[in-house]
Design a protein that fits this description.
heterodimer, A: about 200 residues, mainly alpha, Four Helix Bundle (Hemerythrin (Met), subunit A), 6 helices, about 80% helix, elongated, B: about 100 residues, about 0% strand, disordered N terminus
């Protein structure tokens, strides 16, 4: 049952007509957070783009193996958005076991993404690229680190929502809201990959 | 909250968007290995990234099917945040010419 349906049926059994203008406050808050977070990433990526284009001796450390790793990460994250859609839809249909399975799948895919991300970082550490090693290291680890933080936070939030939704203390509206966040994390990655990885391929 | 049994179709409904997103990602990886100038490559990749983001926003985040009131609520917030960012752009443009800070 959606939040608006609960508003219609949940107050003493009285039938209430849904307002055509009403937006669940939880969803609106998440959208406002997404706008502010998008602007944060936008500002960081803009600064990165400027530095990348304006610096003639920019490091290009990503070999073919790294790019394959990033391609797999991209596939995993886009697939996790699909499983998240399944979770939202199953929760709206009231199918709790199915919603839980989809949420668990999304979490597993998120963890795989984080694992591949950390593997990529260790590869760069081995190549001598660290946070302290010049403009490339600073911008690369700042941007990907901030994104990884969002992924890990999302996995933790998904675990909390999955557990509480299964026990009945959260509604399908909560699943939809965490879904918005997860899709946003996916969207940010679509900008990080081309700007941070694909323009820095070793030739 | 009775199970309606309709949840099985959602993955199939979104598969076209999913495959288009994967295809755009594939094109990005292909373009990255072509010999374009850095500025040209960044421009093309950004265009494709914006297309992917638009698809994600409209279909995965359901913005295409949301109430108009959500749009109307979000537009002022977006404009406000962008105006606030505009305070920073002027510094960025100054940095393009590497001018020192004004005293």
């Amino acid at each position: 049952m959606s939040e608006s349906e609960m508003a219609m049926h949940g107050h003493g059994g009285a039938l209430m007509e849904e307002s055509p203008y009403s937006i669940p406050s939880r969803k609106l808050t998440m959208w406002l957070f997404i706008i502010s977070d998008a602007v944060t990433f936008g500002a960081i990526l803009f600064a990165y783009g400027y530095l990348r284009v304006a610096t003639p001796d920019w490091q290009t450390p990503f070999k073919f193996a790294s790019i394959i790793n990033v391609a797999i990460m991209t596939f995993v994250l886009i697939t996790s958005s699909l499983t998240m859609l399944g979770a939202v839809d199953a929760s709206k249909a009231g199918d709790k076991p199915k919603a839980f399975r989809f949420l668990a799948s999304t979490m597993v895919l998120g963890l795989i993404f984080a694992g591949l991300h950390i593997r990529e970082w260790f590869g760069l550490f081995d190549a001598g690229i660290k946070l302290s090693s010049g403009l490339f290291g600073q911008t690369f680890f700042s941007i990907t680190g901030l994104h990884l933080l969002h992924v890990v936070t999302g996995v933790v939030a998904l675990a909390v929502v999955a557990r509480k939704y299964s026990s009945g203390s959260l509604t399908p509206g909560h699943v939809e809201t965490i879904g918005l966040y997860w899709h946003f994390v996916d969207l940010v990655w679509m900008f990080v990959v081309p700007l941070v990885y694909l323009t820095n391929i070793a030739r | 909250m009775a199970a309606s049994g309709k949840s099985g179709n959602v993955i199939a409904n979104y598969l076209p968007v999913y495959f288009v997103l994967l295809a755009i990602a594939g094109i990005e990886f292909f373009l990255a290995y072509q010999n374009f100038s850095t500025v040209g490559l960044v421009g093309m990749l950004l265009f494709l990234a914006i297309c992917s983001a638009a698809l994600g926003l409209l279909y995965f985040m359901h913005l295409a099917h949301e109430k108009r009131s959500l749009f109307f609520s979000l537009i002022p917030a977006t404009i406000f945040v962008l105006l606030m960012m505009n305070m920073i752009w002027s510094d960025s443009i100054r940095l393009l010419h590497m001018r020192p800070f004004a005293h």
